[in-house]
């Protein structure tokens, strides 16, 4: 039997999941880097490119940024609780951390129009009132928001004739981000992240329960893509939460194993400086597309470029952490959050 990893290593496992999520986000963003340069619309594809495009829609789109959102919510609670344990004011510290993220996000906007950072900072503010909430209260909010979101999507898909601005609002990406933020916040507050081994049975049930849903929605999205269904974007959103739950339960079960954690250690370094690597992806990606002179970034190009960028980031992260304890953007964010009172360890 492969032994369970320690609590210290389990934090490492969160970095692994964050690093994997960054690659998924990269697969989505690469094509958008071209728009930053030229402003051209993305064409429709067929053949191999069409297959890759559909597979990205099924496997990656909305899912990995949802994983990233989940981890952000968990991280925000951990950050606030540690601040409180030091005698700091957690609510004020969360506000300052999110406002500094907004400032950095606006600066990133001038590099990449599709940056998620300003949205994260604004939606993150909605979590602050939940810091003192009971776990049971968070569960009710999370369950209620999820039901409303999924029901609104199904209504728009099955009954498009009654579509309304309210339903459109209830199905926008901001709602999905908030749901995943809240899920991560709840998970951290309930201390589930340090009880993965004890919760392995529940994780397996989540995995088994969401896998059929993932498969059904995958077939649905595939068929919709083949027939030019106008609802494909809604179907992708519909699959986001169950697929993310399937991915997360699978990842948590896998990274509970010491052998897998050791094998994926380089990816954990990418996740450890996720902020820096997220910013760097847009810079490196835009530079590669410009240097290659690509007029159109096809789905196949996306895969090649994403693998290249991610390989660069793994190498850079390994080298960086041989000399420094944290990434440059992480250090800047930390300084803006705390000022000179906090020193890097």
UniProtKB/TrEMBL annotation:
Keywords: Membrane, Transmembrane, Transmembrane helix
A UniProt-annotated Pfam family: DUF418
Residues annotated as transmembrane: 64-83, 95-113, 142-163, 175-193, 205-222, 234-255, 275-296, 302-324
Cited InterPro entries: Bact_Transport_Assoc, DUF418
Residue ranges of every copy of the DUF418 domain listed in the record: 188-340
Listed PANTHER family: HYPOTHETICAL MEMBRANE SPANNING PROTEIN, INNER MEMBRANE PROTEIN
Official protein name in the record: DUF418 domain-containing protein
Species this protein is from: Peribacillus muralis
